[in-house]
Amino acid sequence: MRTHTFAMFIVGCLVVSVCATLAVLPPRPVPLTTRPPAFSTPKAPAGAPAALWQREPPERRGIEAVIPVEGKESSGAFPAVAMAAGEPILGPQPWVTVLCKFADDPSELQPPAYFETMYDDLASYWAELSYDQMSLAGSTAVGWFTLPETQAYYILDGHISELRPDCLAEADPSVYYPDFYGVNMVYNGSLANTWAASGAPTPLTLDGVTRTWGTTFLPIWSWRDCVYEPAGCTTIKHEMGHAFGLPHSAGMYGQQYDSPWDIMSNSEHDQHTIAFHKDMLGWLPGDRKLVLLPGSVVTTTLERLALPTAEGYLVVQLPIPDGAEDGHFYTLEARRRVGRDLDLPGDAVIIHDVLPPFRPQPPPTLPAPPALVVDADDNFQLGDEGDMWTVGEVFVDATYAITVTVLSTTTTGYRIAIAYRPAESAVFLPLLSR
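RESULT FIELD:
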């Protein structure tokens, strides 16, 4: 059996009475080898990218001993609540792809039919991620429309802010925007192809209606050949996720795109997004979420996040009572290589440390993603044994007396045992609600 020593950032652990006291725990039944807990931030290896964000304060919490648990089947008596505030994205959510070309570049690199074909895979993808609760029915593509100005005017002469409204205006006679949830904007031209793709919920007034539309900017490299790629248009899926309101997730090393467990981090494959994000969008039913509070000792089944059966929890939430203003918790989710998750690094229970919402940081530091993958080996790499919790392995947060043991596999998930301050009585903690 391998036992991890894990260290992680925390925010708000400033109250001595909360952070300094641990429950008295029973002895281990057998001797196990552990490595000393790490209480300092791991040093980045030579050549590692500079950190783009940091959680403050940069304290780290040691994960040390292994604790036996006396399991019992969950009764489902704990409250199932939304893990994150957000607007549910349910039912038909049609998109329109608007194709715009610069006044000095008449090239039309693909016909509208190409972009309509793109929606076949996009619709299948989002249907699987949402458990068929959301569709892209009614999506279409229109264009190409000629912009009033040249590439140089928009990109080199400082008028970039005019590009989106000009494109939307040129397409307006052919599109009634209130019929659509979102707009994918595509531009031709070599200068536009040097930009990064982007996506966001965007307040706009279109066709006399003022509301928030999902919008993406899609440079040529993000769509030119993606219909023919085995994984499909993964960058577009990532940016549509942002347009639905999803943030990045990441590892704990200050990067934005290093987690292979989430399309909203590393989008080289078209894997599912994580349980925290699915709950933001209203896709996790209340009876498939288990919230455990201090005093809990539970053995239960964690069902795989992709293509789940009708039984078992899709996520377990463990609130961390450290005084964080908007909540702080662990999530546990089972990932198996099926469906869109086929290209994951492996089958495992994945643990995230979640601190919603975004936490602003002084420039040039970016806000930390709310959900960070728990990585036990501090090696600045995800998708290896450090963040894949498998049968016989135990995660222990000694500060808050939380123990998670992966007991066995099921056909479609895992049996896990959880002890959360087992010597205490259950106390309700304030959680976020939608």
